[in-house]
Specification:
Elements lengths: L1 H16 L6 E3 L5 E8 L2 E5 L4 E6 L11 E8 L15 E2 L5 E2 L1 E9 L8 E5 L10 H4 L4 E7 L7
Antiparallel strand pairs: 1-2, 1-10, 2-3, 3-4, 4-5, 5-8, 6-7, 8-9, 9-10
Length: 154
């Protein structure tokens, strides 16, 4: 009986951990972004290269993804490579982690519910340090993501 109970608890925990993992998108380079979890009103997406995306108002919103969603990209200090330029400020994120490697994002979905693609524009923190900081602040890079579904080419 105890063993059956442990297996049931383990299966439930595994299911809860991947509740949103069925939402995965890919960019033109084959890099994936996956819906990881919700914290309050913020959806947390895991991107390539140890990058995280914190999207406000997206948590629990599976059917009304209209308008522009704002948030932040972040790389945790332990994951930052030696070439990353940090900000003078440290941002505390929705999940309580803090990092000096961050910038704003804007997300616009193509449709209201998954599977739908989106465009993400990412920028740099307003107080970025380094030789080219003044050239980067205020600029945005645009990335296009398409949904990965069972019908997606392998």
């Amino acid at each position: 009986m105890f063993r059956v109970c442990l297996i049931s608890v383990a299966m439930t925990a595994a299911t809860v951990g991947v509740a949103n993992a069925d939402e995965v998108w890919t960019d033109e380079f084959g890099e994936n972004v996956a819906y990881d979890r919700d914290v309050g009103t913020t959806a947390i997406l895991r991107g390539p290269h140890d990058q995280w995306f914190y999207v406000d108002r997206l948590a629990g919103n599976y059917a009304n993804r209209t308008g522009t969603f704002h948030g932040y990209w972040a790389v945790m200090p332990d994951d930052a490579d030696g070439e990353m330029i940090g900000c003078a400020s440290t941002l505390t994120l929705a999940d309580g982690r803090s990092t000096p490697f961050w910038g704003p994002i804007e997300v616009d979905f193509d449709g209201t519910a998954f599977p739908t693609g989106f465009t993400m524009r990412s920028g740099f923190c307003p107080d970025q340090q380094g030789e080219y900081a003044s050239q980067q602040v205020g600029t945005f890079n645009s990335f296009r993501y398409t949904p990965v579904t069972a019908d997606s080419p392998k």
